[in-house]
Design brief:
By secondary structure, the protein is α/β, with parallel strands linked by helices. It has 15 helices and eleven strands. 49% of the residues lie in helices and 16% in strands.
Length: 321
Amino acid sequence: MGESEKLNILEVARRAIHTETLALQRLERSLDESFVAAVETILGCSGKVIITGMGKSGLVGRKIAATLASTGTPSFFLHPGEAFHGDLGMISREDVVVALSYSGETDEILKIVPFIHDNGNPLIAMTGNRESSLAKNAGVHLDVSVREEACILHLAPTSSTTAQIAMGDALAVALMKMREFSSVDFARLHPGGSLGRRLLMKVENIMRSENLPVVGRDCSAKDMIHAVSRGGLGLIVICDGDRIEGIVTDGDIRRAMERRGKDFFDIRAVDIATRNPKSIGMDAKLIEAERLMTRYKVNSLLVTDAAGRLAGVVQIYDIKL
């Protein structure tokens, strides 16, 4: 492929992205009281938000339904064709219906509008034509019209589907704000994700508690090296009975070797220990442990029980798994 052909490909791609960018800028400027009404309608709903749409609008609708459901607004996608052939029973009287059709004249959606009205469901239409049949039969109309598609033929839904996605995201984010949806709420709905794990799991669930490298105050330099190596944590913990005296890291040992030279083997653990090491309770969440490590720029925290005794060690590598 020649350089001119490569440049042509990039030019076409940039033009497509630019066209969609302009569409989003226009959408941003056009938001009005109708959007507020849509948010208020959904907030006032005691049931679910039913999203419906055909073709590309249907694919966008599935994404919007998934985004709403994962951000605190119960929602699911209903295929309008299947709805007309029996699935209308999935819509309860407490639900809100959001119908996507760029033309506003999609036959499969218009066929179920009478049922939606008869069932008493609020109808929010998302179209590119405020004079369309769907827009006129909806209680709230969200205008997602675009001046041109990014498609070189100006036919394939491109800019218009991008506008629909952006409008759906705007609804989800506005609803999150109004519901005061927090990161903890998000974690509850995403327990398998990294954020959910850090927000919901406790330190005791992942801490290292077996065969901890615990030594006494007078542990020799030679024994410190062996203890660090055996422990596999990059540190040793100095304890006097149940009382934690400090920690010594492998870095402390290396620095002591460089500084002390041949006198290194005369030192004791307490001589190079970090007193009052950073610690955290067993019941703390992983996210709290991560914040402490970030604040104090350390990779490990000692874990203590309710009486302040050593219970384990938690490291940033365990949290990031």
